[in-house]
Design goal:
It holds the Pfam family DUF1465. The protein is mainly alpha-helical. It contains five helices and no strands. The chain is elongated, with a radius of gyration of 23 Å.
């Protein structure tokens, strides 16, 4: 069974390029933000550094999960993974922890934008994953109906003989 028609190599490649660029930008910007918050002299400097580090990790991990999913699909389209292997090992993690809205609000605007971009990318990949998986379930139902029809035909043939 081929992958759903809306999931094709061009879409996967475009999302992969987008995710790679986002991953690099997120890494660089959060690293710079860590340096900016260090030595600020604020009373809650330690808490702020921990919050920034947690959000950096969460955002980077979110993008990396998208990249892993996309890499698996690229490998499938290149013939390096069978569809069975992809279905078994190519899942996107469900219920990835959301960003803390209070922490995100406290971040500079460009960093907030990056966090929201990573969330949108993850949501888009999630929708593709859900559609791809539900298409498989629908196809499995068609296969089951075909098997039942074959079983009835064989049974009718043997009972007629």
């Amino acid at each position: 069974m081929p992958l759903m028609q809306s999931l094709n190599p061009r879409i996967v490649e475009a999302l992969h390029v987008q995710a790679l660029g986002l991953a690099d930008t997120v890494r660089v910007r959060f690293e710079r933000l860590r340096h900016e918050t260090a030595g600020s002299g604020l009373a809650d400097e330690d808490l702020q550094r921990v919050q920034v580090s947690c959000e950096a990790l969460r955002t980077t991990t979110r993008v990396m999960h998208c990249l892993a999913w996309l890499l698996n699909h690229r490998a499938h389209f290149a013939g390096e993974l069978s569809e069975l292997q992809l279905r078994r090992h190519g899942r996107l993690i469900a219920n990835f922890p959301a960003s803390d809205p209070d922490v995100v609000t406290s971040l500079p605007e460009d960093v907030r934008t990056l966090v929201h971009e990573s969330e949108r990318l993850y949501e888009r990949i999630q929708r593709l994953e859900q559609a791809w998986r539900s298409e498989s379930v629908a196809s499995a139902g068609a296969v089951q109906r075909l098997r039942e029809r074959l079983a009835r035909a064989v049974q009718e043939t043997t009972s007629a003989a």
